[in-house]
Task: structure prediction
Amino acid sequence: MADDIADGGSDIKIVFTPSGRQGHVPAGTTVLQAARTLGVDIDSVCGGRALCGRCQVDVGTGEFAKHGITSGADSLCGVTAVETRYADKKGLADGRRLSCQSKLVSDVVIDVPPESQVHNQLVRKAADDRQIDMDPIIRLCLVEVREPDMHEPSGDFRRLAEALNEQWPDRVTGEITCDLHILQQLQPVLREGKWQVTVALRDGHHVIGIWPGLKDRVAGVAIDVGSTTMSAHLCDMVTGDVLASTGAMNPQIRFGEDLMSRVSYGIMNPGGHLEMTDAVIDGLQKLISGAAEQADMAAEDVVEIVLVGNPVMHHLLLGIDPVELGGAPFALAVDTSVELRATELGLAVNKGARIYVLPCIAGHVGADAAGVVLAEAPQKEEVNTLVVDVGTNAEIVVGNSQRLLAASSPTGPAFEGAQISSGQRAAPGAIERIRIDAETLEPRFRVIGVDQWSDEDGFDDAVKSTGITGICGSGIIEVLGEMYLSGILSTDGVIDGDVAARSPRIEEDGRTFSYRISDNVVVTQNDVRAIQLAKAALHAGFRLLMDKMELKSVDRVVLAGAFGTHIDPKYAMVLGMIPDCELENVRAAGNSAGTGARMALLNKGARREIEDVVRHIEKIETAVEASFQDQFVKAMAIPHKSEPYEKLGTAVTLPERILTPDEAPAIESGRRRGGRRRQA
Ligand code: FES
Result:
């Protein structure tokens, strides 16, 4: 290796920042070698051959009184010809040195920039991004392999393994093994690379890829397979950077919009589940190939894939018939993580690529929820967190570092705008925000694709292109919340005919009433009921878990999933979709499941972590809990029949409610603190 210690001259003091590690090494030692000796994290793919550029460092300049060091460019040897050649070919920022080439001359402070650290923390790109410590399961290693020798016969793979052991002792953790396809291409690749090859080493011992010469970029893909949409992040497995992101509709939609209709398709059509597997794998392939193309890479460069999805998606992805998930006792085929070869699913990526599927938590709480837990880490918090992923089936996790419980609740598709008379998917033209004047009961609203509110100048012109087409999930939550706050809707969820006299917008509709938002968008009593049923199921689910934890309230609420991103937490709380909590502690976590998948892709420790957490999560089946029905009935009221929602009461003026007496002590305390509620 080029980073041999050159001479055993006088000791040089070297201090590395930001780690603060320091020590003495002989003059003439390369900075990379010194770093390894002192346990400092500097990356390398080429093993010190001035090819990969991953080992760049900056030299500290000036007096470092704290360390008693005067450091500067001349603390290292002059820029070597090899470095100049590298700089000419690939570019090297001013003052940067290749640590594998620069030798120590005198005491020095060396700064290791984040991009040169093996375990660098990826920079947060968005507020909902977790920091990810890089520790990927795949490492690229350039090796020089001994040529065969008549006098010392040995197989090429034996000499490759020897080279790995000798040249990458800190990466090899076990006996070197490989896939058959590696043996099939080993000899031509070794010769093409003139005995210099890059291997993709998986888990410290298994060779899954091999390329002639230097290969310094391979990719991994983290994919969240939702029932409706699928999204993929293609990441550089060396740097962790997201190189491309793609999304597509789940092609299984043609077999049924929601999960249960897909399960039914499998039941009604023998072999139907395999048709759905083929469809989703085909979709995944397009997603992966598209992402690779976007990143200017080939699908063969993809060496690792991580998948998350709800239990039905999880099973269908793996070609497992989800029929057992369609009815009690909702048995999963497997509740641990699954690792397999990408070729087993027929994906055309690198032949050695592996797929890691996060574990499902329970029959209705999937690997996507495990991804959310990994990203949101309630298990690391002392405080109590509720994580809720609202979809046609709400996935709910409650707990803290001591104890975590999970359940799902059958909320149905109402929150997504289905079963709502004017409901639609979130698309241009859909009402997504609404405010109702408490005096006049007049609405003002915003539609997707138009910046102005409906009472602002320019709205009529702007909305012409799309029209007002309906109301989406977040819009229906807001309108019901506003109808309740303005007195149109009673706490029992009845559109109050008595207020009809106050506004022509309250229209008689047979034996019930409706609220008209615009010419073609109304909220009917049936719409209110559909949302009440959905939110009561959701509330009963988390209340059940909170009761088991003996919690009256939680300290923070994380709304995962795309829906969570769009709903306003205030209105979700007004409707009782989430428990009482300080509003500022309610967070929309975006695509946390995808973030969790990316964490598992880039950090092998994250895989062990989530496997361990999932093993210890207590799984609660709401269907068999006797108190679920009782909780469900109480949760039909807005926000709730018996819960005081005191914290919410400090943020909005809640209409007076008659609370049931079982919560009397809480109500009394609420009253003492200035609550406005009447005692039953
Ligand atoms: S280790 Fe690859 S260039 Fe220095």
Summary: The longest strand covers residues 229-236.
